[in-house]
Amino acid sequence: xxxxxxxxxxxxxxxxxxxxxxxxxxxxxxxxxxxxxxxxxxxxxxxxxxxxxxxxxxxxxxxxxxxxxxxxxxxxxxxxxxxxxxxxxxxxxxxxxxxxxxxxxxxxxxxxxxxxxxxxxxxxxxxxxxxxxxxxxxxxxxxxxxxxxxxxxxxxxxxxxxxxxxxxxxxxxxxxxxxxxxxxxxxxxxxxxxxxxxxxxxxxxxxxxxxxxxxxxxxxxxxxxxxxxxxxxxxxxxxxxxxxxxxxxxxxxxxxxxxx
Length: 260
Prior knowledge:
- This protein has nine helices and ten strands.
- By secondary structure, it is an alpha/beta fold.
- The strands form two sheets. An eight-stranded parallel sheet has the order 5-4-3-10-9-8-7-6. The protein has a two-stranded antiparallel ribbon with strand order 1-2.
């Protein structure tokens, strides 16, 4: 079991719900992923609207925990207001906090992110902030009360994977007690496995599953990759070497010579 912000979960894979070909395929992908948590953008799927209400009922029927997000917000004030509405509509204190600073890269506005996180935590939210791999920003988020930090692997929806592995490894090393979830940019299950091997606590995937030729099949692949990566990390990866090291040393091995 995995304790995420006070909740006991079985899976370390979180799944986004955007861009699927149909609600039916989304439902199949969620089931195949065996995830316990899905994210929903309030602006896209408001449960107060007719279409959004149907979508919300479908998600509730899956028996997973909903993590609303503030996708599309570009100021701290906008994100705070969206989070307050999400708490009332989805009946949860959890919020995936996004404050976008650049329309091209969808890079977070980290200053506004810390500001919004501090306000929402003061209002009783469990804030899971989407940020970069910047160590200082992560430290500031933890200082204002975030128990979980979600650094990106690369640009949202880019599929470029773990662009700055060194930065992510540094983040993991310097924040050993924080819950860190790689969020955004993963394109392949192998990249999710790599993040887990690095010691990250979980990964959040959306586009790589939603845009696959077979979303349920890809969701299943990511689930297995996350499980394998975590198992490898817990088992202890062998150290790397600069030179070869034979698995069967020659020392003490008998050599046989043909008789003349």
